[in-house]
Write a structure and sequence with these properties.
The chain has helices at 3-15, 27-34, 38-50, 91-105, 119-132, 148-157, 180-188, 211-224, 242-257, 272-281, 283-287, 317-330, and strands at 54-57, 61-64, 72-78, 108-114, 136-139, 160-164, 174-178, 198-203, 232-236, 264-269, 291-296, 308-314, 337-340, 343-347. It is α/β, with parallel strands linked by helices and 348 residues long. It has three domains: 3-64, Arc Repressor Mutant, subunit A; 72-177 and 317-340, Rossmann fold, CATH 3.40.50; 181-314, 3-Layer(aba) Sandwich (Rossmann fold). The strands form three sheets. The chain has a six-stranded parallel beta sheet, sandwiched between helices. Strands 9-8-10-11-12-14 form a six-stranded mixed beta sheet, sandwiched between helices. The radius of gyration is 29 Å and the shape is elongated. Residues 82-90 and 206-211 have low confidence and may be disordered.
Length: 348
């Protein structure tokens, strides 16, 4: 072993006994202490500088540095980000913000990827994830069953693999998501006791969708059974494109529908972007109503009129991020399925 490496290790052990920012002996004192040349001292201290264990202040001396933070890479992969893709989902940026905060507080570095509705790109993102083998992965998968095999491989390769919001039952991984069925039921149930001219339901009903979308639709259907108003119109977004759905289906339909003179209506909508476009385009018609209720899974990014009441599902994102962090830190061997109950918020 080179002499300077031996000296470096001895100084390293000494540094561990010091407080942060404590001053070390001078070059000459270290040389005298270990009976070595200044050149050997300089080499030893340069190695400690590279390891960020010490820092130097010109004309003042050498000091113990703060411990270097070691970040563990955690990849967060979502199918959409509001404002970046043609997506109806404003929930994920909200969740991601909380997750990133929790990760950074615990020396984990978030690597964010998105794949929109591009299933081939989704496959490439997960393939790169497998090659990188991060400390952990938090993934919101699409409903494309052609990609299930790549997810199976990812779960086998990455120890701390968590499905977020959507669950693939055939793959044994950790799952943290919202209890969409019960929340949808709780949000729609009061409509049974209220009298409306018509109820309009907008559903992001993807052709390859996983359980959560079906659960939400089933929740609304069950809750509306026996309601006073049986005049329910359902719109299904199978295109993964809210703008196309609005332009081709919803707008022409409501141009005729608002001529019927409704006084009390409900917009019950999973697809937040659709309701935003509808509300902005038909704002004058909605102002003429006696009363309008908007029921959403996300807090609406729209200006609500005085005659409108808003009910929205609060998805407990802080609880979701805590559960994700618990799994990443504890590395439980048994796979967990955690369903976070939602809360209902009202705005008039």
């Amino acid at each position: 072993m080179y002499k300077y490496i031996d000296v470096k290790n001895q100084i390293k052990a000494y540094i561990k006994t010091l407080e942060v920012d404590a001053k070390l002996p001078s070059y000459s004192k270290i040389a005298k202490l270990y009976n070595i040349s200044d050149t050997t001292v300089r080499k030893a201290l340069n190695e400690l500088l590279k390891e960020q264990l010490i820092y130097c202040v010109s004309k003042k001396g050498i000091y113990k540095a703060k411990p270097k933070r070691v970040f563990h890479d955690v990849s967060v992969v979502v199918d959409s980000l509001y404002g970046k893709f043609l997506s109806s989902d404003s929930l994920f940026p909200w969740i991601i913000g909380h997750i990133e905060k929790r990760l950074r507080e615990n020396d984990m570095d978030m690597l964010l990827s998105c794949f929109g509705d591009d299933f081939e790109f989704e496959r490439s993102v997960i393939t790169k994830l497998i090659d990188r083998k991060p400390y952990g992965a938090v993934v919101s998968p699409s409903g494309n069953r052609d990609n299930f095999d790549i997810y199976e491989k990812a779960v086998e390769t990455i120890d701390n693999f968590i499905f977020l919001d959507r669950n693939i039952d055939s793959i044994n991984a950790h799952y943290v998501g919202t209890d969409s069925y019960s929340l949808a039921y709780k949000m729609a149930k009061p409509l049974q006791n209220e009298d409306y001219d018509k109820i309009f339901i907008f559903v992001a009903y993807y052709q390859r969708a996983l359980n959560s979308e079906y659960e939400r639709l089933a929740g609304y259907n069950d809750a509306l059974k026996g309601a006073k108003c049986q005049r329910v119109k359902k719109f299904y977004d199978t295109s993964l494109n809210a703008k196309t759905m609005f332009e081709d289906v919803i707008k022409p339909y409501f141009e005729d529908e608002f001529k019927k003179g409704y006084k009390r209506i409900v917009f019950l909508c999973i697809n937040t972007e659709v309701i935003e476009m509808l509300y902005n385009y038909f704002r004058d018609d909605i102002k003429k109503l006696d009363f309008c209720k908007v029921i959403l899974f996300d807090k609406p990014p729209i200006e609500i009129e005085k005659n409108t009441s808003v009910v929205w599902g609060w998805q407990n994102v802080e609880t979701i991020s805590k559960k994700v962090l618990e799994i990443l830190k504890e590395k439980p061997e048994k796979k967990q399925k955690i369903y976070i109950p939602g809360e209902i918020r009202y705005e008039d």
